[in-house]
Amino acid sequence: MNRNVCAMAAIILLSTLSQAICGDAATKPSSSTPSWLDSLSIDGFLSGGVAINFARPFNKINFGHLETDRANWPQFNQAILNVERPLDQKATALDFGLGFIGMLGTDARYTQFLGQTEYLIHDRTQLSIVEANLQAHLPILTKGGVDVTIGQFMSYNGFEKLTSKDNVFYTRSYSSNFGPFVDTGVMSIVHATDWLDLYAGIVSGVDTSIGWPGDNNNSPSIHAGFGLNLLDATFRFSRLRIPDRKIRM
């Protein structure tokens, strides 16, 4: 009888100790903090489709379309490689990020920076660099701080994106044909309040890079605007000013 009691007591004691150890291990917070590389992502996607035109034009051209310019004919629009480390939107200290988007497909005919990749492939399917930039969050001026992007990036004008997965529809609006599509330069976003962002930057122009033959007039342009963060969405209003002459800085 005493042996049974001792055995039962030993089992209860071991069970209690194991629960205490496992419970402490489960509730103990991890001492390791996420590194900068934990937020780095590398991904991509393929995009293609057919724009149906019931008029069946004899030349198979959808008049007024850029990316979907072929009627009733399958197109390989995009193969995207995306390398991104976005800025921490909740950062209160200095933070750094980067962005790179490479595109291969028929859409790349219209996402070119002058003087870079437009002559690498002499075909409808082309190669382009959509973005290549460095980013920084600076905890200055306001409580929300300032975000700065340096390099090449998609234009802040317009409501449709160059990357297919970020648009609602396969086809795009007629107004999107007129760009601008991509910019080269420095862009800053001042988070003035929780609901107001101020945009200001200097770029080389519309779809241009730097120097000949990337910039046809070698003159900087001003890109500015503001954004309203309302109803869980951002409404952005911006304007690109392209001078006929050089700006005296």
Beta-strand residue percentage? 35-45%
The CA-CA distance between the termini, in Å, is 97 Å
Number of helical segments with 4 or more residues: 1
Q: What are the low-pLDDT stretches, counting only 5+ consecutive residues below 50?
A: 5-31, 244-249
Oligomeric state: single chain
Helix content: 10-25%
Major pleated sheet: 9 strands, antiparallel
Structural Rg: 27 Å
Notes on the protein architecture:
Strands 1-2-3-4-5-6-7-8-9 form a 9-stranded antiparallel beta sheet, with no helix packed on it. It has one helix spanning 2-27, and strands at 41-49, 75-85, 95-105, 126-138, 146-154, 182-191, 196-203, 221-230, 233-241. 10% of the residues lie in helices and 36% in strands. The protein has 1 helix and 9 strands. By secondary structure, the protein is mainly beta. The longest helix is centred in the first third of the chain and has 26 residues, at 2-27. Strand 6 and strand 7 form a beta hairpin.
Features:
globular, mainly beta, 249 residues, nine-stranded antiparallel sheet, 36% strand
Q: What is the gist of this entry?
A:
With 249 residues, the protein is mainly beta. The protein is 10% helix and 36% strand.
Write the layout of secondary structure elements.
Elements: H1 2-27, E1 41-49, E2 75-85, E3 95-105, E4 126-138, E5 146-154, E6 182-191, E7 196-203, E8 221-230, E9 233-241
Antiparallel strand pairs: 1-2, 2-3, 3-4, 4-5, 5-6, 6-7, 7-8, 8-9
